[in-house]
Amino acid sequence: MKITCDKAKLTEALSLGQRALSPNSTLEAIKGYLIQGTEEGISVSSYNLETGIVTNIPATSVAGESTVINGRIFFDIIRRLPEDTLSIEVNEKGVAVIRSGNSEFNIMTLPAQEFPDMPRIDSDRQLTLPQGLLKSMISQTIFAVSQSEYKPILTGCCFDIRGNVLRVVALDSSRLSMREEEIATIDSTDSYSFVVPGAALREVEKILKDSDEDTVNIFLSRKHIIFDMGQSRLFCRLLEGEYTKYDTIIPKESRFSVLVNNRCFLESLERVSILINEQQKTHVRLKFEKNSIHFSTETLLGNGYDECVCNGDAEGIEIGFSSRFLSDAIRSVDADECELAFSGTLTPFVIRPVTGNRFLHIIAPVRIAARN
């Protein structure tokens, strides 16, 4: 096998594929990249038996030839090479000779046959979305997936298709995040849902471009999904089980509605959160007064207080929250102002942009001791 290619393009492909390597596996082949010659150049594949990433880059190679190279060592060598181009030649002893400028490395490879076969996916359905749109839908929900394996289905995001509307939903026992969009390419008579593991979606988010000029094709089978993003493809196994009926969690109406400037709210929240230690389960208090919100914390290190202006009256209501959950939600609102809607101290707390109904976040308040 002999390859000549651009260092920057190969480095980028290896960087993307690194997320699907399995460095601690007892199976040596999945610690590395499968490098294959194609008609257009080479493909770089990594597969940890759960998630696979394949990236195609232009190169001079022989179609059909392939080898497996240790992922950590190969990536470290390639990104440190001195010139913009490089060559890789695998000799009859299975040694890859990597050359660029005055640098030369000789590393052992594995036969391509030892790399596990990626599953063949016979697609039942296909979705086409602008990359920037899908990226924003993932980023505004992914932070709310459950980190506990107690209920594995909640460690992923639910893609819920209802007619030509796509909802992406994430939730755990304390919060919910939902974003929805009308998608012209979806069959308006179809309804179905599937759950993608959060870990795989985080990698999809990193690969997707911000631009809506580029599209992503999603191919769906009963157990697997492929995100085809042009030069790169990611596939993974879907999560199995019944997703929580999230519609029942969303309040139909609220007694109080308060409008806040996101930046001012976050600045006050971050100041009083300096003293908070997540391990000690300390929470932030929000006390609503007429046209103002008072933030306070009481910890073993000391006390903190701040306040910000708001538009609305929920005078006398005091609610406790996880400061991290509250910060995550406010940061994900893609607007200058948001609405805080609630009915009492222990009712679901809804956060959404002032205009539009494309997304919302719900946080469960925590019980706080009454002040003396």
List the helices and strands and how they pair.
Layout: E1 2-6, H1 7-17, E2 32-37, E3 41-47, E4 51-60, E5 66-70, H2 71-80, E6 85-90, E7 95-100, E8 103-110, E9 125-130, H3 131-139, E10 156-162, E11 165-171, E12 175-182, E13 191-197, H4 198-207, E14 215-220, E15 224-228, E16 232-237, E17 256-261, H5 262-272, E18 284-289, E19 292-298, E20 303-309, E21 318-321, H6 323-332, E22 337-342, E23 349-353, E24 359-363
Antiparallel strand pairs: 1-4, 1-6, 2-3, 2-5, 3-4, 4-16, 5-8, 6-7, 7-8, 9-14, 10-11, 10-13, 11-12, 12-24, 14-15, 15-16, 17-22, 18-19, 18-21, 19-20, 22-23, 23-24
Summary tags:
372 residues; alpha+beta; DNA Polymerase III, Chain A, domain 2; eight-stranded antiparallel barrel; eight-stranded antiparallel beta sheet; 6 helices; 41% strand
The class by helix and strand makeup works out as: alpha+beta
- CATH class (first level) name of the largest domain: Alpha Beta
Number of helical elements: 6
Fraction of residues in H or I helices? 10-25%
- Tell me which CATH architecture of the largest domain applies here: Roll
Q: Biggest sheet, in brief? A: 8 strands, antiparallel, barrel
* Domain module tally: 3
What is the H/E order?
EHEEEEHEEEEHEEEEHEEEEHEEEEHEEE
Given as residue ranges, the uncertain stretches (5+ residues, pLDDT < 50) are: none
Quaternary structure of the protein = single chain
Strand order of the largest sheet: 1-4-3-2-5-8-7-6
